[in-house]
Amino acid sequence: MTSELWADVTALSGDHLAAALAHVRTAAVDAVLVRPEQLDGWKPIERLAVAVLVGPASSGADLADVPVDVVVADGVRSLTAARSLAEGRRLGVRCLIDDGASMDEAADQCGVVDVLLSVFTDETNIPLELLLARAQGTRTAVFKALASGSETSTVAGVLESGPAGVLVDATSLVDLDVAAQVVARQAEQTAPLVPLTVTGSRPIGMGYRGCIDTTTLFDDDEGMIIGSTSSGGILVCAEVHYLPYMDLRPFRVNAGAVHSYVFSPTTTSYITDLRAGAPVSGVNAAGRFRDTSVGRVKIELRPLRLLEARDEASGSLVNVILQDDWHVRVMGDGGEVRNLTQVKPGEKLLGGIWEPGRHVGIKVSEKILEN
Hints:
- Helices cover about 15% and strands about 40% of the residues.
- By secondary structure, it is an alpha/beta fold.
- It has two domains: about 5-185, Aldolase class I (TIM Barrel, Alpha-Beta Barrel); about 195-365, no CATH class.
- The strands form four sheets. Strands 9, 10, 11, 12, 13, 14, 15, 16, 17, 18 and 21 form an eleven-stranded antiparallel sheet that branches.
- β17 and β18 (about 315-325) form a beta hairpin.
- This is 3-dehydroquinate synthase II.
- One of its GO terms (biological process) is amino acid biosynthetic process.
């Protein structure tokens, strides 16, 4: 599950509030928590949810003409007012937890509300783990509020405990951005890559290949796992390495023939199925996958080369068909970049082995033979 980051601006006013609201509109934040009066003049932005914190005396007039996704009670005593204001929106509650009684009161809201913003006075994560245990199997998403800016460095540890996300005080925009970076890293997945022994490399004539242009900039050791069968594929490098006759395209992977699979840790996509905005995974030589989006897929007729390889440990055979050109690179098993046309049988490349059998890109439990 991808963790969410919420920015809390409820303590801000004046220029500080204006600066924070402007910042969250462009930051890697999923939602902003505000008081009703702070949304005066707010213009909705599709990707950013708005949660409004209300008290026991709040009325419908407080939320008139305000684009609100979540109504959050500022405590259990305010839930009645928040529920009456929700009217089809998600319902939440913010709970201050400083002893056993307040812990039990918060836990009792699991299954009652959609969002539980837990504010702990103690640094330990044990109360958080107890809340998560109570929320398991219910509709309630538990968030942890970071106690201070200094706690930003512990975001990763908090997220490993399993909350739906964190609530960060937007008093410090630097802390907000640091938390966003940590949340983004937590969304990355890893899958073991393996050395594959090349068994064949030969031209096969003309065919259509697709370049996958993404909305990210790849690092020197990154690319995509591309293969002809669901058994796996080879790490094809992004266009971030020296090209003598053209500029680099650091957003691009020259990904191979149009029939090819593009692998993520749990799913695959045909190159021809990819469209602008579709999710796709980049991977580095250490097997760290990160999500990005397709900007476009550029399909053109080019000479093609078949590259075949074997995983000696499992005996699995994989192949990839790529544009037959020196400037297309694949990754050696030691993390070195190899020019496609210079790869010879017996050499080792880096790739991924998956359990075969896919239906619309998802693993299925049936026998499927691919050659």
